[in-house]
Specification:
heterodimer; A: about 80 residues; mainly beta; Ubiquitin-like (UB roll); five-stranded mixed sheet; 1 helix; 8 strands; about 35% strand; elongated; B: about 130 residues; alpha/beta; Cytidine Deaminase, domain 2
């Protein structure tokens, strides 16, 4: 099926797949750290496995982004 | 190599100093390794030692960049009181293997560096900043 993934149309071999299966197809290494929007609406992480995708759906995903100096001072 | 022009570096630092002592964060967008736009982002942690981007804002900025024909090249954040190098927390929380992590220190002299952080392994990327 054709999906619009992060803004680009891609042909996916499978005829049916869920959000979590798409993340696996796209080789997302830490799917539990990814936020997903399906046609502009957030998909709850708990619903990734139960959310089916259909032809021409727009799926956007991005990784959690965080960090910080944290305990950097301890080895300065 | 990541190239960031002088005006953009000034913009990034202006955001960093404006947010200090809290950590400042944002996305750098551009093409072919040349950053042309800085998107200042909200640090939802509002912390001097941590930052987290707001996913809603992340999606909005990524889509805005995409509509402008730009790619997100890097996520940038300040280390207000420590050197420009990935902390253990930066390494632990770096999940995206496809983006550069730019860290800039507000200590004197101000220093900006870029890193790939993949599966806990850090490699510094050459950066041409302020030319």
């Amino acid at each position: 099926m054709d999906l619009i993934i992060n803004g680009s149309t891609e042909k996916i071999k499978q005829d049916t797949l869920t959000v979590v299966e798409l993340l696996a197809v796209k080789k997302v290494e830490a799917p539990e750290m990814v936020s997903v929007q399906l046609n502009g609406e957030f998909v709850r992480r708990a619903d990734f496995a139960a959310t089916p995708l259909k032809e021409n759906d727009a799926v956007d995903f991005l990784y959690f982004m965080g960090g910080g100096a944290d305990d950097e001072r301890i080895y300065d | 190599m990541l190239t960031i022009g002088r005006k953009l570096v000034e913009e990034i630092y202006a955001h960093g100093f404006a947010e200090a002592p809290l950590e400042a964060c944002g996305y750098l967008a551009g093409r072919d390794g040349v950053a042309t736009k800085y998107f200042p982002m909200t640090n939802v942690d509002q912390s001097a030692e941590h930052f987290t981007l707001d996913p809603q804002e992340q999606f909005a900025v990524v889509k805005e960049a995409r509509q402008s024909g730009l790619q997100i090249l890097a996520v940038a954040h300040t280390h207000p009181a420590s050197p420009a190098r990935p902390s253990p927390e930066d390494i632990r929380l770096a999940y995206d293997p496809n983006i550069l992590y730019v860290i800039y220190s507000l200590l004197e002299p101000p220093t900006i560096k870029a890193f790939w952080i993949r599966q806990g392994v850090v490699s510094e990327e050459e950066i041409n900043a302020g030319a």
